[in-house]
Amino acid sequence: MRVISWNIDSLNAALTGASARALLSRKVLDTIAESNPDIIALQETKLPSNGPNKKQLEILKDIYPEYEIVWNCSAEPALKGYAGTMFLYKHGLQPKVSFPKIGAPGTMDYEGRIITLEFNDFYITQVYTPNAGENLSRLSDRQIWDIKYADYLENLDQEKYVIATGDFNVAHREIDLAHPDNNRNTAGFTDEEREGFTNLLARGFTDTFRYIHGDVTGVYSWWSQRARTSKINNSGWRIDYFLVSDRIADKVIRSEIVDSGPRQDHAPILLDIDLELS
Length: 278
Known about the structure:
Oligomer: single chain
């Protein structure tokens, strides 16, 4: 089974935009299609509460004609056109789809941040974890989120194997970003967020990239758009993950970053795992 996950940073911009960045985004969408994944997870879709419009669905189905599409969008009382997630899965698959609320603080449960697909033997769930924000204004809420989300995954894991993917908005270890010393109090690399991720793994989950690649350095999934040379200089962060239940870690075949060319921001990530979809 192959799964690809990508924080797309606006589905509409990627599908209908005319900017140079939009063209690069469409190339990434094509690259994903060429990889022929069974399941595609997209984060930060930024769609309205009623989901993609007719034009957006037509373009998606043109790129991915063999897939069903489900989505979870930000809705009141949360901000409109904010966050959001989407799954595409091959025709013939019939997962049970849920849009869980985890008891998160503020409006986080209404921001379309989680979708879960239930199959016979396992769950595939994706997340767009809330950012701690400018000046860490949302850090305390983020800490609560991390606990609630760990509880959620642990409960799933008690029922079936779990594959959890998405933008977790944290570089877990110093080797997961290019400049750890300069980012100690930056959102995504605070002690609190790193501890939250450590706690999540301790609930019975494996970071598949580290499982396959060990302590390799210089491999990242995100490069800031604010610094024009961040990708050229590989000044990046690894904040996108595939986690699996510890007891199926030995079934992981590949876990890697997909080449997204010159496009900055997030790159897709890919997981090949020896599990049967049913």
